[in-house]
Amino acid sequence: MKEVILIKYGELTTKKDNRNFFINTLRKNILLKLSSFKVDIKDDYYRMFIYAKEEDIDSVVEILSTIFGIHEIDICYMSEDVNIDNIKKIALDIIKEDNIKTFKVETNRSDKSYPIKSMDVSRDVGAYILKNTDLKVDVHTPNTLLHIEIRHEGVYIYKDGIKGLGGYPVSTLGRALLMLSGGIDSPVAGYLTIKRGVELYYLYFESRPHTSIEARNKVIELARKLEKYNSNGKLMVVNFTKIQETIYKNLDNEYLITIMRRMMYRIAEQIARKNKCLAIVNGESVGQVASQTLSSILAVNDVTNYPILRPLCSFDKLDIIEISKKIDTYETSILPYEDCCTIFVPKHPVINPNLKHILEEESKCDFDSLIEEAVNNIEIINLKETQEYKDLL
Length: 393
Ligand code: ATP
Ligand code: MG
What we know:
This protein has 393 residues and is an alpha/beta fold. Helix content is 37%, strand content 21%. Helix 4 links the parallel strand 5 and strand 6.
């Protein structure tokens, strides 16, 4: 008897025509994340079996629980001996592991040549467990549901396992560009986007020397944490100093944030196009701050036709914080280093920006060439070559 990991696909089951594409991508993503282990994968239309060394099983399951596209992870006991007495013995051993009161057995025969019908296997195994324990059968809400699957290569016996992350395998829905600041929101927005099968690249606007190297390292650390779910992300850093200083020195200060964000969107669109990113993602949440009123979003969004995804648009801050703790970005996000959005902040940022006034203000300076310069001087950080910034925390 050996332990095998069984994976169920979840929402993928609703895909019909391109289901193979989703399963193939999931397999590729799993192999990539498990590249430091010796594993063997067998899959079909409904599930995947992962064979790993016994001592690696716990670590492998831990990694699998960070991969999107997996609905459930079960540890199965597999035996080539499909004799009913052997099945009964394994089933009893498994069920005895838990401190439970009720159980139910469910059998599935993909090997239809097996001489005992599924219902009868369940009944026989159930009777054997009843005879050898104090447990009772509960067909509606059992404490443990024991699955028996008889396949041509052997029998697989398992209990309901760990819930996977759900969603779609990363990259099946293409790539997007996440505007990643050092705050709490944007990493969560990124996580929720990856969940829908979208691979991410990251874009960070920095304003050295007004922002510090620690602020940059914090963003690198956040990107690294998102890489646990994403796979081949790269972080692009825009030198935003000149643009910010130009706005600060020359334009109506009440509009500083609005115009700064318009410049961010214009740059993000160009970077997204160059990098085959099909959308821009950010952490805006309606009403959270002055720059996130609907009229501010309207004024800022006016610079682009590119799709802007705002996965957090209707989230409460507390719900966002809860996710950020779950994905382990919270502690990094709350580090105090200032972001370019928090420097030069006006006392009274405009809440209902006037587009005509914005355009008049912007016409005072040559932003086209500043944007071109910023786009041409992007710095690319290969996240695989970065290290954890322990001293930040
Ligand atoms: P966050 O917590 O993600 O920083 P926030 O609540 O501070 O968001 P804003 O500062 O208005 O809100 O920023 C809204 C969104 O714009 C952010 O979620 C992020 O996606 C993007 N953004 C802001 N500043 C930067 C930056 N310096 N680099 C990249 N993206 C940024
Ligand atoms: Mg912020």
